[in-house]
Amino acid sequence: MYTFAVRDEGSSVYNALTKLIEADANWKRLKKGNPKANLIFLERNNQPFWKFGHQPGLKQLTNYYRGSEVICRKVKLVSVLAHHFALKNQDIFQWLPESFIIRPIQNLENYAAMKSKKPRALEKVTDERGEFIKAFERHRNSGRGEAWIAKSSTGAKGEGIIISRSPDDLISAIENQPEPHIVQKYIEKPLLLSGQRKFDVRCWVVLDHEYNIHLMKEGVLRTSSDAYDEDNLTRITSHLTNHCIQEEQSANFGKYEEGNEMFFAEFDGFLKEKYGTSMVDKILPQIRMIVKECLLAIKEDINTDHLSYQSFQVFGFDFMIDAAFKVWLIEINGAPACAKRLLPQLTSGIFTMVIKQVFPSDVAYEDTEECGFETL
C-alpha cells in the first residue's frame, strides 16, 4: 500500500490525477500536510522540499523539481540560456527572440543598497537597457522591424504586456513597475491562420524521476479572435492570444474555433492544404530540439540524483511560428493548466510513465507511445 498527500487542491491537472490514484486500490490518501506520504503533490509557490527524504526506508516522489523556476521566470530563463550558450560558444538567439533584461531604477537602487551585505548573491544582477537601445537601432537600420514587446518576469495571462515601436515608451512603462522585465524582439511576420489570425502553440512536457523528457504528441494552438494588425500595436486581441484576453475583449471569441483552441490534427491539415507541408516536416523537429535544449541546460542544477527523494514535473512550453516556419520559444510554464480535451491523456501519461514506475503494482504498464508521448 502506497500513500499520497495533496497540497495543491486548485490545480485541474492534479485534481484529475488524484482521481486516477484514488481509483487504484494500491493507494491511500493522507492528510494535506503530511510530509511522510510516498507521493506528494506540492503547491506551485509553496514547496517545502526540506521536509522530504528524512524517513529511513520511505520512498518519496514530489511533483516539482527544486530550482526549476529558473526557466519558468522570464528574466531567469534569458539569463540561464545566455550562460548555457556562452559555454557552448553559440548564439543564444537561435530560437529565442532577441531579449534584454531591464530593471526599474527603483529596483536597481534596492539591489545597490543590498549589495554591500550580499555581494556575491547580487554580482550577476544586470540591466541591459543600453544594449537594448543599440539592438533597436540595429534592427531599424537593417529594416528588420521596429516593434518590441516588454513582459514582466512573473506576469501571467497577458498582464502588463506592452508592445511598441518606441524604446523610450517601453523603458518608461517598465520604470513604473516594481520588478524586472524582459524586452524582446516582437515577431512581426507570424504565420497566420484563416482570417489572418495569430496563434501560439502550447506543448506539454513531462520530465520524469530519471530526467527522461517526454513530449506529449498532442498539443493545442491558442488562437486570436481578430485579424493580425501589424500597423496597430494597441489592438490587443490581434496580437496577444491569451484566452483570458480574447474572451474578455473580443466579440469574436469562439467564432473560428471552439474556445479559440485548434488541435494539432486540424493545424496539420491546414499546413498541408495551404502550404503543402506538415508539422512532422517543419514544426515538430524544432520543438523537440528546443524542449530538450532547455531542460538539459538546467539538469546539473535541478536533478535529484544526489537527494533522498525523487521528483517529476509537468512543463508547458509556449511557441510562436513565423511566416518562414521558424519556431520561437516564448516562455515556459512550470505549473501549466491543460486543455480539457487533453487532460485525460496528460494525467494518464503521468500516472503510467512516472508514478507507476516509481511505485510498482501488479497492473500492467503502457509504454510511452501508447500513452501518447514520445521520449526525446
What is this entry, summarized?
The chain is α+β, with helices and mostly antiparallel strands and 376 residues long. The chain contains eleven helices and 16 strands.
Task: Please write out the topology.
Blueprint: E1 2-6, H1 12-22, E2 27-29, E3 39-41, E4 61-62, H2 74-87, E5 99-102, H3 105-115, H4 119-122, H5 129-142, E6 148-152, E7 162-164, H6 167-175, E8 181-185, E9 199-207, E10 213-216, E11 220-223, H7 243-249, E12 261-263, H8 264-275, H9 279-297, H10 299-302, E13 310-311, E14 313-321, E15 327-333, H11 343-358, E16 373-375
Parallel strand pairs: 1-2, 1-3, 3-4, 4-13
Antiparallel strand pairs: 5-8, 6-7, 6-8, 9-10, 9-11, 9-14, 10-16, 11-12, 14-15
Strand fraction equals 15-25%
Can you tell me the residue ranges where pLDDT is under 50 for at least 5 consecutive residues?
111-115, 119-123
Q: How many DSSP E strands? A: 16
Which H/E pattern describes the elements? EHEEEHEHHHEEHEEEEHEHHHEEEHE
Radius of gyration, in angstroms, nearest whole number? 22 Å
Biggest beta sheet summary: 7 strands, antiparallel
In whole angstroms, how far apart are the ends?
32 Å
Determine the number of helices (DSSP H or I, runs of at least 4 residues): 11
Helix/strand structural class = alpha+beta
